[in-house]
Amino acid sequence: MNRRTPWWVELLVHAALLLAVVFALYPVLWVLTLALSPSGTPSPHAIPWPESVSLDNFRAVALQHDAAGRWLFGRQLFNSVFVAVATAVTSVALATPAAYAIARMRFAGDRTGMRVLLATQMFPGVATAVPLYVILDTLKLLDTRAGLVLVYATTALPFAMFQLRGAFEAIPRELEEAAMVDGATRWQAFIKVVLPAARPAIAVTALFAFMSAWNEFILAATFLSHEEAFTLPVALQRYVGEHDADWGRFAAGAIVVSVPVMAVFYAVQRHLVGGLTAGSVKG
Amino acid sequence: MTGRLCRALGLALFLAAPSVSAQHLTLWHAYRGAEQTALDQVLDAWRRAHPTATLDVLAVPFEAYASKLESAIPHDHGPDVFLDAHERLASYRALGLVTPVARAAEPTFSAVAARFDDTAVRALTAAGDLYAFPLSVKCVALFYNPALWTDPAPPATLESIEALRPRLGSETYPLVYESQGAYFHAPLLHAYGGAMLDDAGRYTFVGPAAERSLQRVIAMTRGNIIPDEASGALVAQLFATGHAATAISGPWLAADLGSSVSFRVAPLPALADADGRRMEPYATVEGAFVSSHTRDAAAAIALAESLTEVPAAVVRARVGRQVVATRDAWTADPELARDPVLSVFREAAAHARPMPTHPHMRAVFEPARQAILKALRGDRSPRVALEEGLHRFTDVTRPLPRRRDATLALLLLGMFALGVVLNALRGLRDPVFRRDLRRSLPAYAWVTHAAVTLLLLVVVPLVIGAVTSLYATREGHSYYVGLANYLDILTARGGPLLATGSFYRVLLVTVLWTVANITLHVSIGVALALLLSRPLLRLKALYRVLLIIPWAVPSYVTALAWRGMFHRQFGAVNALLTALGGEPVSWFARFSTAFAANVTTNVWLGFPFMMVVTIGALAGIPKDLYEAAAVDGATAWQQFWKVTVPMLRPAMGPSVAMGAVWTFNQFNVVFLVSGGEPDGETDILVSEAYRWAFTRQAQYGYASAYAVLIFLILLLVTRRRSPEAIP
Amino acid sequence: MAAVTLRGIRKTLGANLILRGIDLALTDGEFAVLVGPSGCGKSTLLRTVAGLEEPDAGSILLGDRDVTRAPPRDRDIAMVFQSYALYPHLTVRDNLAFGLKLRRVDPKEIAARVSEVARMLTIEALLDRFPREMSGGQRQRVAMGRAVVRRPQLFLFDEPLSNLDAALRAQVRVEIKRLHASLGATMLYVTHDQVEAMTLADRLVVLRAGAIEQEGPPLEVYQRPASRFVAGFLGSPAMNFFTGAVDATARFADAKGLRVPIDPARFDALPPGHPVVIGVRPHDVIPDPDGAIDLHVEVVEPMGFEAYAHGTVGDVPFVARLEGGAALPRPGERLPLRVQAAAVHLFDPTTERSLDAGRS
After folding, report:
1. How far apart are CA B373 and CA B365, in angstroms?
2. How many alpha carbons fall within 13 Å on the CB side of residue B88?
3. Chains with ≥3 Cβ pairs under 8 A against B?
């Protein structure tokens, strides 16, 4: 079956892939150029290459201090990392047992529950931001990292549960049964056997939760009222306001925000194919 | 197990305990740049003078400022003192957000008022009481570059500026200003005797004066007197680099220019063709307001007032380049009175027209901006563009539906709840159900924590959101109106069914948007996955990593970057077009190109997901199927359609359905790339809902009705198409 | 080691009755094989004994302890799964030690038992490998090792050989038998393969549609099947069946194309003309020019030491086993066959039970 393909077919394949890569990288390079250009205004060139390189924009973004002399960027970076990691941990911790139960146990209300879960994905967030604000306020969690984590984690929960349910269904039932016969309780079998077997899918699910929290800014801007409580995206948004757009700083900030996600993404990407399809192949 | 989880959660909450306690003064502002620096200096001085007090300062992005104040103050999360413009006063008063800083009845009132310029005090006074200490007066003036305007006297008329055209190079403009903005257009309109809004809150940007003002701008654009669609950043850049002889802008431009270019300032010129009347700008008075929810009103008032004391005012004037409203500051520091910029602005402000304070003023800017844009682009004649603007304004400010009695709804709700309870009770008596329930108990231990959090933070907000759709809300007031919001939406608010902004038109755009995106996502994703799944392909891993990159970039970064790339003058896309010998395109001027820009961005954002899903699905197709097909004589093309496609379909179905739902509600791209341009034509349902909630006088009820309709549409479509497709 | 007693085990899944009241008693150290076609409920029965399924009614006793409602971990049993179910993230060593660690056995003791079992099953070289790095046969041995190392009261096997190729299967079969001999443990083994069933079992339990069709020592079940179903299920190639009747002398049974003698010791009460289903195993026929079975040969399969002749008798398909060395018939030929009375089985056409007076 694996006959050698003619050279021109090979060439066409590479040409097509290269075209796609150019399409994929062009905006990234454009932002990079902007961030490295000292002028900070977009230059009307087709080829994204800085005329002169300067790290001023990065310096301006990274060394930002507030009036009281606190290192704002550091705090905001910490907030972002904390919120994103806590969101990933919380949503995975909440989703795994529930998704396991849905995958393995039959119980009254399981189908209805899944339908409701699915339905929540269709309701646009616009209409829930204000009620969420009121709820967080009641829980005294407004303007806190914990409140933000809670909201992000629950928002990420339905998708995490779909993902993980598919992954758990793909794990042979016999594995847990063997563990239970070997002397494990259901919970032990879950912790010691099912979870390790589902590691790739859990990594991918955690990545998505991490990304959704790392990238979110509308709710963060609504719920947070203190500059040192801001996450990076909220801070970033300020660079391109209606009245004065500082594209250079925005681009530098964008790169600072994107690089960690891309790094995590790169680390998890070999699981991506398997982790995603375990959830979606199951009909 | 739940115990362990609870402990973990408790720990998380403990670690993230409220980062700031509330026992001190908080001040909010929307300043940037030099003004922020000046304010920080003033506040530092205040802190030194009040060592026992703590003061928290938050710089809120201007775009979010008002809505944040409106939501935070009633919930006691707002500031004690906030700096804002006088034109918000009426609506803040209506919402009960502010408290007077000096009452007319108080004996000291006249002494307080006498400290400030008259216009400033008038603008911040309502019902006799002073609601904020006036900080500064802002209006625009004419900046001119003495190297290009060589006459020692400042330009006296607009016509004299226009006359510069032949003497300047084609790269240099006689005048720059944000021509499409209603705020910057107002001086021209006023010169022709028009107004944006009358005292009763009626939209008056129609009629002969408005048309004349528009024709004047069109003529200046066509004559290359002013650049097309200049943003604030472009104005600053062109003037700073000597590519504009004059610019209309505010004191902030002076602060930003610094010493990069030599400039002088003059009041706005007169219009010879308007009988020599001066261009009359809007004046905005900024004041330090005190929140009605402050815990310590006296301290808050003292803090607000301290910002206007002479030393503070001098700092704000010298460092922040503000035209301060404190009279004595101008005499206390002789340099201020001599300052060639500030003194001119102070003079200009004295002759400016205070911005109307009617709450409807907030609804003027967007329709007016759209009208100017349409006329400038030549899509509509000035008359039609202006009438459409009026229509849009009426649409947004239309009278709310009348209040309805909620008894019937409550009765129905009660009966429904009773039915549910009775049904549940009957079910509990059923032995089969009881057995099922008993068997379910162990499983509930695994799902309860997730179910409870979901219920609390997903389902409850959703239900509240849905219930809100039965209320009319605007600017913080709300009352029950039954289904009137839906009726309004589904009848296209009485206009033609397919008019711009009507539900059906937006729905059509949304469907088109979803179909176009999903088609491209899937076909590009599948094509790339097929190429990447070739067994002998070299550099496969590298290609894959590079092609996944768009997925890893935060979507708002993507959206804003693409918006920049589609910029008419600086965008890379137009640069590419020009390099290939094409004409630059004004991407957001027309539905087709703006829509294409949105779709391009979203395709860039979404194809890696489909690609990865397809790679996974392709790996699941047994090789021998292809071998069997090959033995049966199928060509590669036939193999694709007869083997690959049918095998991919079940594997990808759920992902495609999920992708379609997400695309249907893809807010970021539409909102950030085209922003609905031109004139809301590229808005999809969800961004339209957002506009009603956050940019059209906080009509949450109306926005919620949109959200519920979106929800119902998606539910209906996904149910019909694939009952169990998504899990 | 313990005796196992099942009393009236019933189980429904949804609307389907899977087990219709199973009574079974295994003595201590017995090797019992549950056999039957797929869907007969044998796996469900095994899983019920393991505690992975809860019966709707009935009780399960291990020794004299009622474990009907006990979770698997409290039953002190070990199970070998069809898919082996090795923990993919653990090495062989950790797979073997898993159950012992859960029971908090002393680590030194665990190490000793793991190496002992590894020696016994000759998997010492594999101890540090992961399951994905081993062949099917190796995994199978590890799966058995994981059961053995626990020293349980009862071993359960759920079709443990069905994923192996034929040669390996025969080899492991012998090994299981040896294991049983050396451990002396009670074992319950599920298979659909009648060769495994015959070779391994002390006691063969044939299940059909959720009920026990026949149980007993394997040879007895083979030689004196209680029903047409059991007769047809055991033996390969399968028994040949004919619908016929007892002849006028009551000493023969006739069907179209054949006439077989009736063993009076087993079928003495059958009156002439009694309708019967005649069963003759392929192995029990002998070529004989005077034979009363008239085989019309269509296909001959020479296997070396033996050969199978496929064809029809009357118009019913028939298989006969022939000596491999003899001159084989050619397709199209007629081959008369003889059968001894002792090898003739008679079944009631309606109940399909054996008409053997000594049975049923």
Report:
1. 12
2. 21
3. A
Torsion, Cα of B657, B659, B662, B667 (10° steps): -140
**Across the interface, do C73 and A181 touch by the CB < 8 Å criterion?**
yes
Q: Does A8 touch chain B (CB under 8 A)?
A: no
Q: B631 and chain A: CB distance < 8 Å anywhere?
A: no
Pick C4-228's CATH classification: 3.40.50.960, 3.30.70.100, 2.60.120.200, 3.40.50.300: 3.40.50.300
> Residues of A with CB below 8 A from C73's CB?
180-185
B653 near A CB under 8 A: yes
B707 close to A (CB below 8 A): yes
Q: Do A178 and C79 touch (CB under 8 A)?
A: yes
Q: Are B659 and B625 in contact (CB under 8 A)?
A: no
Judge if B524 and B584 occupy the same domain.
yes
The partner residue sitting opposite A174, judged by closest CB among C71, C78, C85, is C85
Query: Which residue in A has a C-alpha nearest to residue B73's C-alpha?
Result: A225
DSSP SS3 for B507: helix
Tell me which chain C residue has its CA closest to the CA of residue A176. Answer: C85
Q: Are the CB atoms for C216 and C243 separated by under 8 Å?
A: no
Give the chain A residue nearest C51 (alpha carbons): A181
Contact A262, A184 (CB under 8 A): no
Helices and strands of chain A, counted as H and E runs: 13, 0
Distance CA C264, CA C255 (A): 19
Backbone angles phi, psi at A55, to 5 degrees: -100, 15
For residue B97, the domain's CATH number is 3.40.190.10
Distance, in Å, from the CA atom of A240 to the CA atom of B611, rounded to the nearest integer, reads 32
Query: Which candidate from B451, B528, B612 shows the least CB-CB separation from A273?
Result: B612
Q: Give the whole-angstrom CA distance, residue C57 versus residue C21.
A: 8
Same domain, yes or no, for A126 and A150?
yes
- A184 and C102 within 8 Å at the Cβ level: the answer is yes
Domain that holds residue A50: 1-54
**Of residues A181, A185, A199, nearest to C77 (C-beta):** A181
A128–B contact, CB cutoff 8 A: yes
User: Is C77 in CB contact (< 8 Å) with chain A?
Assistant: yes
pTM of the model: 0.78
Q: One digit per residue, pLDDT tens: chain A, 283 residues?
A: 455 677 888 888 889 999 999 888 888 888 888 888 776 555 556 666 766 777 777 887 777 776 566 787 888 889 999 999 999 999 999 999 999 998 888 888 888 888 888 888 888 877 788 788 878 878 888 888 888 998 899 888 988 888 888 888 888 888 999 999 999 998 999 999 999 988 888 988 898 899 889 888 888 887 887 777 888 888 887 776 555 567 788 888 888 888 888 888 888 877 776 655 543 333 2
C79 and A199 within 8 Å at the Cβ level: the answer is no
* Whether the Cβ atoms of residue B186 and residue B139 lie closer than 8 Å to each other: no
Residues A126 and A174 in one domain: yes
- What are the two backbone dihedrals, phi and then psi, of residue B173, each rounded to the nearest 5 degrees? -105, 145
Determine whether the interchain pair C89/A179 forms a contact, defined as Cβ–Cβ distance below 8 Å.
Answer: no
C88 touches chain A (CB under 8 A): yes
Long-range contacts of C20-26 (CB under 8 A, 24+ apart): C20/C209, C20/C210, C20/C211, C21/C57, C21/C58, C21/C211, C22/C58, C22/C210, C22/C211, C22/C212, C23/C212, C24/C205, C24/C212, C24/C215, C26/C186, C26/C188, C26/C203
List C-alpha distances in Å: A69 to B60, B222, B470, B498, C194.
Answer: 18, 50, 48, 55, 84
B551's enclosing H/E stretch is helix B540-552
Q: What is the DSSP string of A157-205?
A: HHHHHHHHHHHHHHS-HHHHHHHHHTT--HHHHIIIIIHHHTHHHHHHH
CB contact under 8 A, C72 and A177: yes
